[in-house]
Design brief:
This protein has 338 residues and is of the alpha/beta class. It has helices at 41-55, 77-83, 93-96, 115-130, 134-137, 174-181, 195-200, 213-216, 242-246, 250-257, 260-284, 298-317, 319-333, and strands spanning 20-26, 60-66, 88-92, 139-146, 150-154, 168-171, 186-189, 206-210, 225-227, 235-241, 288-290. Helix 6 links the parallel strand 6 (168-171) and strand 7 (186-189).
Length: 338
């Protein structure tokens, strides 16, 4: 596939004082249903180039594109970054973890007890584990953020987790399949575009998905009960391609490095705002909301993560990653690997 993109941030021999055009690719495909998706999401994309343009006095300006516009799916983002064909990218953890499974630790269901707790997990993992892997990633890991939170949607509110026994639940990853199986549910894999009709026809009983799909799928009509079961927020990293970063003069590197905390904080603020858009729609349409997960469920949720999902991840990553999990994620989540 040939990609027609702008040159990297500063091509060799180019004067640093000139305005540079850099390609920024958003690494998460748009939701299938489209309508009702995140009022503030477009603001996220707009804020980043504006901040970089201002902080560099106009010496760097970003050209925004999406994976769809490049004919990609989002799973190839790290590979495309390594080629130097794009300069900066959003790498959605769930999409790129097949290339680097260690990234998936923060996506394990049952670890994050809240949106804020998800930020703590992802930021700690980025600083202590992911950034040391930058040579392998092929870029400088600048920041992290979340799109929104994920929840369980069912026809009736849950009195206990045992109510899931026998229910057919749509999931979107092997880890989530193992997670719902721990409670006796039957996991189903299905494109999000087919979910509404499947729920209408009784092919399945519920689904796991993000709050953005509440309006997009009009979930109040088919699954009016929303329950928090400690699913991780949809996390992502902002990564500057190593070739592009290396080509910058030292003063611009310092400015780019200085964006890290601001981008992380703003990304999580917008993610929380996006989450509230979906939850407000749920409330407006009379849905039942159980947020956060009841305290008495926490031991069972943690046990499902520890006994059913974590072993799937640990078998793919090796002992060093397991040790890092216990050191970094264990104290935050309360879950460790024996």
């Amino acid at each position: 596939m040939r990609l027609s993109l702008r040159p990297p941030l500063l091509p060799p021999g180019h004067r640093a004082q000139k305005r540079q055009q850099a390609t920024f690719v958003r690494g998460c495909p748009a939701p299938a249903a489209g309508a009702g998706f995140r009022v503030e999401a477009e603001g996220r994309a707009a804020d980043r180039p504006q901040g970089l343009d201002q902080r560099t006095g106009g010496r760097i300006r970003l050209e925004l594109t999406t994976v769809q516009e490049l004919g990609l799916t989002g799973t190839e983002v790290l590979r495309v970054l390594r080629t130097g064909l794009v300069d900066i990218a959003e790498a959605n953890v769930s999409y790129v973890a097949s290339d680097l499974p260690i990234l998936e630790a923060t996506e394990i269901p049952g670890l994050a007890s809240s949106f804020a707790n998800g930020k703590e997990l992802l930021s700690a993992w980025m600083n202590d584990v992911v950034r040391p892997l930058e040579p392998q990633i092929g870029g400088k890991v600048l920041a992290n953020f979340a799109w929104n939170s994920a929840y369980l949607f069912t026809r009736e509110p849950l009195a206990s987790l045992s109510d899931l026994r026998g229910q057919k639940i749509r999931v979107y990853s092997p880890g989530l399949a193992a997670y719902v199986e721990a409670f006796g549910a039957e996991p189903i894999s299905m494109p999000i575009s087919e979910v509404y009709s499947a729920l209408q026809r009784g092919v399945m009983d519920g689904l796991l998905t993000g709050s953005d799909q509440i309006s997009a799928l009009q979930l109040w009509e088919v699954t009016p009960a929303l329950t928090d079961i400690n699913l991780a927020p949809f996390g992502a990293y902002v990564i500057v391609g190593q070739r592009s970063y290396n080509a910058l003069p030292d003063d611009l590197k310092e400015i780019v490095d200085g964006l890290s905390q601001d981008l992380t904080d703003e990304g999580w603020r917008l993610g929380d705002a996006n989450n509230q858009v979906g939850l407000n729609a749920a409330r407006d349409h009379g849905m039942s909301l159980t947020i956060p997960a009841p305290a008495e469920w926490q031991p069972e949720l943690a046990a499902a993560a520890r006994e059913h999902v974590v072993p799937m991840w640990s078998s793919r990553v090796g002992p060093d990653a397991v040790a890092a999990f216990n050191t970094v994620i264990g104290p935050i989540s309360g879950v460790t690997i024996d």
